[in-house]
Design a protein that fits this description.
Number of domains: 2
Radius of gyration: 18 Å
Shape: elongated
Distance between the termini: 28 Å
Strand content: 15-25%
CATH superfamily of the largest domain: Cupredoxins -  blue copper proteins
Number of helices: 6
CATH topology of the largest domain: Immunoglobulin-like
Helix content: 10-25%
Strand order of the largest sheet: 1-2-4-6
Length: 213
């Protein structure tokens, strides 16, 4: 298998050592910060609708000011972005396309949302969808759309979590792979990105050092 062969290169071997090296840092995060399940970072989550609040400089809540807010739903569910009537400016929720630093036409654009307005988007395909506010480009979020029965950490869709998943994440982070078969399961840290911390958490999990993400 090409992916496994690549994992044996010196570069990937070095990166695996790096992942183990950051394990202590990653495991120090509180468990609730690592949990990724449907309903994560939804203001409310009921009847298949995840409500994400829009603040004047953040999505989800004020703790995500200057950060990317990751929210999770299941395929077929809806995200409703709500800008409260108390808002002081205008916003959009806009899919980034390939890259939020260089946005392209994506799957949705709410158009201008004034205080008191909202916007719904239903997601029928599993994956990760990064979005931003066109008025305030630093204001960002990501929607993680899970399949029923998805296993966090299982990036090769094999039904189990093991060191192969960690190796694939490291290859993806090094741009040796363009995508992962079950990429929606890769962000084990729940920080909105896929990197060596996610791989290190998988290695800790497979070694029995942590019970869950």
């Amino acid at each position: 298998m090409d992916a496994l062969a690549t994992a044996k290169t010196p570069l990937l071997a070095s990166m695996l050592l790096l992942a183990v090296g950051v394990a202590a840092f990653a495991s120090s995060s509180p468990p609730e910060a690592l949990a990724v399940e449907a309903g994560l970072n939804c203001d409310t989550y009921a009847d298949g609708v995840c409500v994400v609040e829009i603040g004047d400089v953040w999505f989800c809540d004020a703790s995500f000011q200057g950060e990317v807010c990751p929210s999770s739903i299941v395929v077929g569910e809806t995200v409703r972005w709500v800008y409260p009537a108390s808002g002081m400016t205008v916003h959009t929720t806009t899919h980034c396309g390939g890259d939020c630093d260089a946005p392209t036409a994506g799957f949705w654009n709410s158009g201008t949302l004034n205080p008191g307005e909202d916007f719904d988007m239903t997601f029928d395909v599993a994956g990760e969808y990064a979005y931003f506010c066109e008025v305030h480009p630093f204001q960002r979020g990501i929607i993680r759309v899970l399949e029923e029965g998805d296993v966090l950490g299982d990036v090769d869709c094999g039904g189990t979590i093991n060191s192969i998943d960690a190796a694939l994440i490291l290859q993806f982070g090094a741009a040796l792979l363009d995508s992962l078969s079950c990429q929606q399961n890769a962000d084990t840290s729940g920080d909105g990105s896929i990197n060596s911390i996610d791989a290190s958490l998988i290695l800790q999990h497979t070694a029995g050092l942590i019970d869950e993400f």
